[in-house]
Amino acid sequence: MSRPQTIAEFLDLAQKSGVVEPGELEPFFEDLSPAELGAPPGPFAEELVKGGLLTYFHAEQLLLGKHRGFTIGKYRILERLGSGGMAFVYLCEHRMLGQRVAIKMLPTSLQDPSLFKRFLREARAGALLQHPNIVRAHDLDEENRVHFLVMDFVDGVLLHDLVVKHGPLEIAQAAHYFKQVAAGLQCAHDAGLVHRDIKPGNLIIDRAGTVKILDLGLAKVFGEGEVLTTGVLGTPDYVAPEQALDSHAVDARADIYGLGCTLYFALTGTAPFPEGTVAQKLLWHQNRPLLPVKSLRPEVPAELAAVVEKMTRKVPAERYQTATEAGEALTPWATGPVPPPPAIENPRLSLAARSTGTGTSLSVRSQTTPLPHPQSAEAPRTPLPETPKEEEEA
Q1: 378: alpha, beta or left, given left = phi > 0 and alpha = psi -120 to 50?
Q2: For a Cys staple, 233 with which of 38, 42, 247, 322, CB 3.0–4.6 Å?
């Protein structure tokens, strides 16, 4: 369907979509004059978002001319949380129970066997592991050739984003966070899994300061013979030397190397080898020592810098041999309570997405706080987020 050109067309599309209860939009047809109904719909859509009638995602999609695709399986799609190399992630709500979940969808354009195998692996590993520091998977399903994974929704910020936006972590904060990551890794290792992609973008910190490990799509089961794909698995900035040589023969100590490189980033604000090509980084992880943590951040205690150095030794036998051992090494700096992340950049949720959770209508407008008039000059405007090109073409 073509994009709506007027408020009237936008309201008609919104009624067809089912994102609001029947009758919610009828007053607008009655209250607006024909001239107002003929105005461009963009500013009006933004006011519906500000008033809590639509979410950012709903308004964005309606403005693109779409009135379908607002549900997946048993869930109502509320907002887009992010996108990665192979999937989009959405905040969703169970239509009957009101349960909040994150759903990762594998677009139809990316339905090749290797990516689906990774998707399936993430679902199985996430369902197997039950630990407070690991994001758990609840279900894997398919609808209209779209595979989707239902996971815990974590209202928080990626470690990568937190450090990039607010600088390196405080010493005690880093120690507390990485003891949690080590505990989650030990749970995975005890279950026979190696994560193989520990990095700042795969650790999320919630509002209370709990860290959870994300993305088990590259997880390896000890002793398995199955090969996901050819080439190096993992992220070049944080990959263990032995993993760059043979991704399928690594053990838990590869995760300890990734943990050390990620802690290095958290303490210094930079990856171990921030410059260079992918090939150079893989080679440097094998033969070039990391710049000492204290040369980049002198206030880091020498003993803590030594912990990072031991985690990131080139030879696996010279590292900590278990995640528990690595976590215990951080104990001297993890004393006392640590406040939640300061100025945390949590997902930008609309009023409607923040206020649902009951399985009822998205509308949360109060009788005492009516929506601003669509032509009002006083009403501040919040730009709607852009739609990824791939989704727009879907």
Answers
A1: alpha
A2: 247
295 and 179 both lie in a single domain = yes
* DSSP conformational letter for 220: E
The parent domain of residue 123 ranges over 71-154
**239-286 confidence digits (pLDDT tens):** 999 988 887 788 999 999 999 999 999 999 999 999 989 999 999 999
Neighbour-count burial of 238, counting CB atoms closer than 10 A to its CB (0-12 exposed, 13-18 middle, 19+ buried) = buried
Report whether pLDDT(382) > 80. Answer: no
Please report the pLDDT score of residue 356 as a whole number.
57
Minimal CA–CA distance to 138: which of 93, 106, 96, 103?
Answer: 103
Based on the fold, state whether residues 19 and 140 are members of the same structural domain.
Answer: no
Q: pLDDT (tens digit, 9 = 90+) per residue, 286-298?
A: 999 999 999 999 9
Q: What is the pLDDT of residues 32-42, one digit of tens each?
A: 888 999 999 99
Contacts of 274 (CB under 8 A, 6+ apart): 237
Instruction: Give the end of a domain, one of 94, 121, 154.
Output: 154
164 and 290: one domain?
yes
> Which of 146, 133, 145 lies closest to 88, judged by CA?
146
pLDDT of res. 155: 87
**In a shared domain, residues 173 and 256:** yes
- 247 in the same domain as 139: no
Q: What is the DSSP secondary structure assignment for residue 134, as one 8-state letter? A: B
> What is the model's pTM?
0.81
Query: Which entry of 155, 197, 215, 255 is annotated as an active-site residue?
Result: 197
The whole-number pLDDT of residue 3 equals: 93
**143 belongs to a structural domain:** yes
pLDDT above 50 for 160: yes
Question: Are residues 109 and 63 part of one domain?
Answer: no
Per the annotation, the verdict on 197 as an active-site residue is yes
167 Rama class: left (phi>0) / alpha (psi -120 to 50) / beta: left
